[in-house]
Amino acid sequence: MAPGQVVGGEAVAEGGGWRAQLQPDSRHRIVNKIMETLKKHLPFAVDAEEEGLQELRKIAVRFEEKTYAAATSQNDYLRKISLKMLTMEMKSQNPMANSLQSSAASNSENPQEPAS
Known about the structure:
By secondary structure, the protein is mainly α. It is 72% helix and 3% strand. The chain has helices spanning 18-21, 24-41, 43-47, 50-70, 74-93, 95-109, and strands at 6-7, 10-11. It has a two-stranded antiparallel sheet. The radius of gyration is 21 Å and the shape is flat. The termini are far apart. GO terms for molecular function: chromatin DNA binding; transcription coactivator activity. Pfam families: KIX_2 (PF16987).
């Protein structure tokens, strides 16, 4: 593959494609953003001391690394991370709907006998 050649809608740069163009500080900022989202939506992490924050950072880094490795382009990488964080936001903003869904699911699995 020659530099500048278009592969799968992405131009290939010298040195390894889109990953070579993504600056390490960009990845650090993304990990920090993931951490902020996790802190908001994982109650145990808010109450946690330094040990809990270190564990949270490990989770954020691991998620970012897996997404980075699996992504086919920078747009794909950013889309996957954004989608995951948006999903977390939606779940936390709508806890009643989530509990109703889980309640409905358990009721359909274990229907109560009708009263006579």
